[in-house]
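Our consortium's second objective concerns turning raw sequence data into structural hypotheses that experimental partners can test. To show how far this objective has progressed, the report includes one record in full. It was chosen at random from the queue rather than selected for favorable results. The single chain below, 171 residues long, was entered without modification.
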Amino acid sequence: KQFHNAYLRAEARPGKTGENLLQIMECRLDNVVFRLGFAQTRRDARQLVSHAHFTVNGKKVNIPSYQVKAGDVIEVRESSRSSAKFAKLTGAEAPVVALPAWLNRETGSLKGVVAKLPERMKEMTRKVAKKMTAVPKSPMSARAMTQTAEKTMNTKRFRRAKSRSSVAAPV
């Protein structure tokens, strides 16, 4: 249901639906928390957001699907900073995270900024196939495959099996 609604929003926006959908998914708060390096996995990021450990522009947000906008400031809440999980993100042993071009994070702090929205596929780090096609395993051409399928459908055995399955069951 959630993904379907995201698709409908992407379809309603101007531009390519696929790129719009990727932008909507990238701009979810749980994904941004993951990308900023505040969580090790997306599942962890979702839980941290659900437990209200983050603020967006100074306001507590606990909705993982919250859509961030350009200029939004994502920060760990003051009450959560003393947690061991967040304390190790600011110390000398803090992990180094490669940030996408559309996000900025201040070094040594628990604060990140959405500089701009991801605009193109190359800015989004996941590689997505533009067109999904079925590739046959044999070197048979599409025409030969179609002809073979038509021959199969016209055989007596196939028609008999089809007629048996389409007969209504007695009530």
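The partners drew two points from this record. Helices lie at 2-12, 17-26, 29-35, 42-50, 84-87, 142-153, 156-166. The radius of gyration is 25 Å. Both points have been shared with the crystallography group to help prioritize constructs.
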